[in-house]
Amino acid sequence: MVGEKTSSMKIQNYIDGKFLNPIADQWIDNYNPSKGEVYGQIPNSTKEDIELAVTAAKKAFPVWSNTTLNERSEILSKIAKGIFDKLPELAKAESKDNGKPLSLATKIDIPRASSNFQFFADAITQFPSEAHESIGLNAINFTLRQPIGIVGCISPWNLPLYLFTWKIAPALAAGNCVVAKPSEVTPMTAFLLGEICNKAGLPSGVLNIVHGLGQTTGQAIIEHANIKAISFTGGTATGAHIAKTAAPMFKKLSLELGGKNPNIIFADCDYEKMLSTTLRSSFANQGQICLCGSRIFVEENIYERFKKDFIRKVSQLTIGNPFDEDSDIGALVSKNHLEKVKSYIDIVEEEGGKVLYGGEKVIVSGSENGYYLQPTIIEVSNNDCKLNQEEIFGPVVTIMPFKNEEEVLKLANNVKYGLSATLWTNNLNRTMKMSKQLQVGIVWVNTWLMRDLRTPFGGVKASGVGREGGFEALRFFTEPKNVCISYD
Ligand code: NDP
Hints:
alpha/beta; seven-stranded mixed sheet; Aldehyde Dehydrogenase, Chain A, domain 1; six-stranded mixed sheet; 2 domains; binds NADPH dihydro-nicotinamide-adenine-dinucleotide phosphate; 15 helices; disordered N terminus
């Protein structure tokens, strides 16, 4: 609820190296989803706060963009270390804010946020630019890769610090100043990052973190004339809105959007590895990862076996308070999101499907008001139903059998999204053929979510435009300028 000041923990904006209340003194309640209760407040920032952040970034840009690569790299390394040193505190904050198991935040989210900074601290020292000699014309061209200026970074709630830093780190490494907004649903670790940056010696104004609602604070970022590029991760509808707003202003855009990823299982796969990985790719982070394999297609000769084994494995998962060590599945991120996910389970029958396992909300003892849902398996009879076409983004997967490669390729590609696909097979020819024909940005074969930060990351179709990761991100956050020198 906006406007009330009910609770103790107040987050502030981080602008020009200082922690500030929002200018209009408007606040938003911040929820702990595992308890379903308000535990703090965050700024409901307005255009005026964004203006302050842009002014700070503008002032900082001439110096930051001219620091040596070694200096920049050192500061980013110190931020990486600062994150790592605070791992337990940050993991607890992430788990409380988001509802994800503490074990997951400790093993994945926070270490990866630290790696994001370390990776780009190193990458910027190795980032090459091109030269082209025009032989016979007596000319040499070289390409300057200059920072863009002030850039906007907007991230979602599912992997809060992980995705926030995945944008900020390359933007800063490339010499830009940043105005960033985390999701208002999970702002806590972004808030804690400010102090880490100050301690690491990041000059004031180079990074500014402004909290608030997407439709106001976020909107003020995407509309601001001095913010020249937007790196956004979030839903496809928001991405389309951002593209529409930013295109007439000729802003550079990187849009990482939704997914409805196929998990394709052939009978010749390594069955046990596939089964345990499929459990993760279906329900890790309560299924709230854009890369989760939410449509499972199984070759018909192992379909019944898979169905039985998968249900057995899923029934062994423990749903519980994220702070309990044995919880495999924590809370969904918000009441609204829980209701949205549940609304898909409510239409299973009318969409021609059948719930094979789960489907019910769960009351967790001691956390009775938290937003818990059983991991849910739905058998569908066709790929055209809403359950297979719309992004549910929760602990819900569908399964259906297929006959052969041609059929499953059609099923996999017949969707508006194109983020990732997982393929389980030991047939090399099939691997090559299908990898080429799957309409996605990322294919995992006999694995899932194995990441090498040098690789291009992103989707096609309604899953986005542009790529993050490695030099792709550094290219996005720089403007290439060709210089042609003629000589006698
Ligand atoms: P949203 O699109 O609702 O929000 C993403 C971010 O955009 C939030 O910070 C949000 O603020 C902000 N925002 C909302 N409206 C505007 C606006 N008009 N102008 C500027 N910013 C705005 O996504 P969710 O947070 O719900 O995240 C879930 C989605 O993210 C899923 O679709 C998922 O697939 C996708 N995603 C994609 C990934 C990828 O790499 N392709 C990775 C992870 C998630 P606020 O929260 O305050 O509204």
